[in-house]
Amino acid sequence: MELSNFTYEQLERMVMQWGTNKGIIPANDPKPQLLKFFEEAGELASACAKGDSEAEKDALGDVLVTLILYSAIQDKSLTACLESAYKIIALRTGVMKNGVFIKDV
User: Fold this and answer.
1) Please, which residues have CB within 8 angstroms of residue 73's CB and are 6 or more apart in sequence?
2) Which sign, positive or negative, has the C-alpha torsion 7, 85, 31, 61?
């Protein structure tokens, strides 16, 4: 199946349908997905440290899947959460220090 023609929203719905079919969303317990998120985030950090771009790509996808499923279990729109965060960071001021943005207090 060629997935490159799908929008993010379509892929998100497909992940949620997969999570429903697998019993993840109906289980209605967000804790396992949150733990899975941290596992996948650890794999992302490891891939980054090793400079393994293929493993990074895989881990980023897995991180997104776990966040999509977590948000679906919590009955929150991941897109709405992102929009809310962007409204805050869009106005944020600060400086870059050692490659990290430090927000003004």
Assistant:
1) 24, 25, 27, 28, 29, 30, 33
2) positive
Measured CA to CA, the distance from residue 69 to residue 35 in angstroms comes to 12
Residues with pLDDT less than 70, the chain: 1-2
> Residue 99: what pLDDT?
94
Q: Which helix (H) or strand (E) holds 100?
A: strand 100-103
- The CATH label, of 1.25.10, 1.10.287, 3.30.310, 2.60.40, for the domain at 8-76 is 1.10.287
Spell out the residues 6+ positions from residue 2 whose beta carbon is closer than 8 angstroms to its own. none
CB 55 within 8 A of CB 43: yes
